[in-house]
Write a structure and sequence with these properties.
globular; mainly alpha; 135 residues; 7 helices
Length: 135
């Protein structure tokens, strides 16, 4: 049985983002809607929020979402946090940042995350570069 890694504590901004996601994601009716909620949340918090705003990420009306288009199952908030904790640990960090949450979202949602982010006018590679993360 593989050793289970401990989850790192979140930064203040990451903790707020996680709490907001736990509240908002149950109302998402598709993985695209989940990603949309995550982007809206991250746009307002931490280093990811600063980077998204600097890159001109705009708000997108929720009515623009294609509710029935996704057949894939969504990702649980705890799964995102666990992956973000793993990523932070790999970087030698002691806390999970919003950049770690972003990296986890990119990993877990894959091309869907790229597509939804692009609808906000930002490319994933551009955002990662702004944050000093290798795409």
């Amino acid at each position: 049985m593989p050793a289970r890694t401990r989850e790192l504590p979140p930064s203040e901004d990451a903790a707020i983002a996680i709490a907001l996601a736990e509240t908002a994601l149950p109302f998402a009716d598709s993985p695209s809607a989940e990603v949309e909620h995550w982007i809206r949340i991250l746009r307002m918090h931490g280093e990811v929020g600063s980077a998204l705003q600097a890159l001109g990420a705009g708000e997108r009306p929720l009515s623009e979402l294609d509710a029935g288009a996704d057949e894939a199952e969504g990702v649980r908030v705890h799964s995102v946090y666990s992956e973000a904790s793993r990523i932070a640990g790999e970087h030698g960090d002691e806390i999970v940042s919003t950049a770690d949450l972003l990296s986890a979202l990119i990993e877990l949602y894959g091309p869907l995350f790229d597509d939804v982010l692009r609808a906000h006018g930002v490319a994933t590679a551009e955002l990662l570069e702004r944050l000093g993360r290798v795409p």
